[in-house]
Amino acid sequence: MSDTKDTGGRKPLTTSRGSGTVKQKFSHGRSKQVEVVTKKKKRVVTPGGSGSGGGRGGKPSGASGGGKSGGDSKIAALAKKLGITEAELIARQKVLLQRKAQEEARKAETEKAEEAQARLRNEQEKKLQEVKEREEAEARRKAEEERRKVEEAEAKKREAEKARSGGGSSGGRGKPAARAEEPAAPPDPSALEAAGGRVKRGKGGGSRSDDRERSGGSRSRGGAERRRGKLTIATALGDDGDRQRSLASVRRARERERERRMGDGSDSGEKVSVEVTLPETITLQELAGRMKERVGDVVKFMMQQGEMMRGNDIIDADMAELIAAEFGHTVKRVAESDVEIGLEGEEDKDEDLKPRAPVVTIMGHVDHGKTSLLDAMRATDVVSGEAGGITQHIGAYQVADEAGNKITFIDTPGHAAFSSMRARGANITDIVILVVAADDGVMPQTIEAINHAKAAEVPMIVAVNKIDKPDAKPQKVLTELLQYDVQVEAMGGEVQAVEVSALEKMGLDTLSEAITLQAELLELKANPDRVADGTVVESQLDKGRGPVATVLVKRGMLQRGDIVVAGTQWGKVRALNNERGKQVPEAGPSVPVEVLGLDGAPEPGEPFYVVDSEARAREITEYRIRQKRQKAGKASVAARASLDQLMNKLKDGAIEAAELPLVVKADTQGSVEAIAQSVEKLSTEEVKANAIHGAVGGISESDVLLAQSSGAPIIAFNVRANKQARDLAEKEGVEIRYYSIIYNLIDDVKDAMSGLLAPEQRETFIGYAEILEVFNITRVGKVAGCRVTEGVVKRGCGVRLLRDDVVIHQGNLKTLKRFKDEVAEVSSGMECGMAFERYEDIREGDRIECFTVEEVERRLE
What we know:
Layout: E1 19-25, E2 31-37, H1 67-82, H2 86-170, H3 176-181, H4 189-194, H5 208-214, H6 224-228, H7 233-236, H8 247-264, E3 275-278, E4 281-283, H9 284-291, H10 295-304, E5 314-316, H11 317-326, E6 330-333, E7 354-355, E8 359-364, H12 370-379, E9 396-400, E10 406-410, H13 415-423, E11 431-437, H14 444-456, E12 460-465, H15 474-481, E13 496-499, H16 508-522, E14 525-526, E15 533-542, E16 546-555, E17 558-559, E18 563-566, E19 569-577, E20 586-587, E21 592-598, E22 607-611, H17 614-634, H18 643-651, E23 659-666, H19 669-681, E24 688-696, H20 701-710, E25 714-717, H21 723-732, E26 736-739, H22 742-756, E27 760-777, E28 781-791, E29 793-794, E30 798-803, E31 806-818, E32 821-822, E33 825-826, E34 831-836, E35 847-856
Parallel strand pairs: 3-6, 8-10, 8-11, 11-12, 12-13, 23-24, 23-25, 25-26
Antiparallel strand pairs: 1-2, 4-5, 7-14, 9-10, 15-16, 15-22, 16-21, 17-20, 18-19, 18-22, 19-21, 27-28, 27-35, 28-34, 29-33, 30-31, 30-35, 31-32, 31-34
Helix pairs in contact: 1-2, 9-10, 13-14, 18-22, 20-21
């Protein structure tokens, strides 16, 4: 549109079909007219709508009579096509309509909630805008006050300068400096006009010289001419009457004033009290930072208290609390262990719990078929559809039977690891399957497995294996179990017993049904809709994938991207793999998975938790690493499992149990039995050797882990350890001793067991002394003046106090002096002074019996 002149005046805007015009004006003086046209919205006619030309429902007028029959025929044809009755089809359509209506209602509720949230956000934004406007108005008001004060100060300054300049002109030549500062007198404007000159007028109609006179002739930095700045359109049009100072200028002025006051020390602001969080130990520098005080002030205060300390010196929480109270702050005491508060999360509600799969551990004696039974159970997994053994690097896996019931199996390295998990309070096993060979019966490790299951308070299922052998006696096995308080259902008890054959795959379905029945009785449930936690079953360092941890989820849903803390290790989950090596997006309760992404391999049995941030995970792991270092400092890391160190620790009394654990590996089963029997024959009432594990073959990583968790050395007879086992043993501090002659092996074990024996104490009489007089000395107590009547008396020897030939006290000699000098011994016939340790009931005439005690090392014969 082109610009036009306003010749016809403004026409009113109407909603009629005609057109209207509106005039627009711009700030630069130009204007234009805009034509406004009202258009009628066209109606869009859709098929079946009211504008289709047919009836109300979009049907032709002649089709109203046959609509019902046509609909019935369509329903009948569709029902015949789907293979169902018309009533079923109508019912399905009703259900679909109901679901659609529910979905629409739910969508409407969601939209309503979103609208309410939007209104709430708008109200909050409006309140924030009002607060902001109030703050800006307050800032403008303060700026105006500051500007007014500055102008008043400048006016006073100009008046003072005028007064000084007036005094200087009346003083003649006596004050040349005042005349030098006085500006030249402006010419008379009337005279200039009479001479035909042009006089520049100011804003008020006067000349600029008059304006300068009105402004006091001052060209100071704060003057009006200096504040006017460069010429703009607003100033040219005369709209800059009273220009205000900018907020930035006001802020700079306030900052300069504040700095000036702080420099003069005249800041009279009140001291702000803060809440100081104090750990168990803290440095002075960190304490000053938390109190918002200068480090020099805190160090000065400590010097006033007589403590010469520096900023990096460490103080305890009590001292820090006194300092904070002296500076006027409040204190909140915390401990380092508080970082783990809330790590386990809240308890689950009953309505949030859902059924989960049982976790089963198979235990039993060596060579009773545990591994074979695991292989057979693995082959019954109808989901995988593949037969084969357990994957070696996975310690847990989940199978499903024909009925669809899922069962999670845990492949622990042995009962020692199982008890280690229980000792950490992270026992995740629900059911224990006790495997007993039908041809071998109950063996020592079977008894230990029973004790472990009872200590863990988990139900047992007895699996009598190898029933396919000719010499199998299942009934004899069940009878032997009665001696250890394991009563099966066939004999009136509550323990289920199943006869199986792992080799022939007999009875596996019955065993699965027994596990499912036991799980139903336990009513195993967990909450999957929460942050995940669980237990680390196994961990390793993989060359291609880095640290890999096999975990079993206890509660919640573990997903990729979660931040996991396990012991002293943490990381972000990069991938989750199941026991078949396939990646899964998430893992729920009782589901074992491999976790990739940790910064190290956590210890088996450690619980893991999902946290909300990397900072919290780093804080927790750093605390645990510090705790681990402190424990390692108290107990030497190197002295773990070697025979020599075991003897030294037992001599010092560091180990109370007089038992020597051993892990035995040999080339044949006969050698294993011979070694086990030989070390058992060395056992006495005071000390015994316990072969916690004995097997045929080379030393593997599981053997090293078992020895490390049990604190036992590994006895290798004509076998060797592979490279992985050697590296792990060196890392964990487990000693491996190799033997080829059984007598050398027995001699070393005998020496180690001799170190478990308490040393024999032998007492040797050295002399008698008689008390002549008792002296009571200040700060020392009672001192006996004695004469040695027989033998000698040595400093620090053992003494017995005899009164009427009855022993009334036995202890050690604290002081032995002669003529105020401390001496090592006093011979017969000489006098001396003696004092006892923590005993002062001595009298004249008492006799003192002196003796020495020797500890003689005992050895097994």
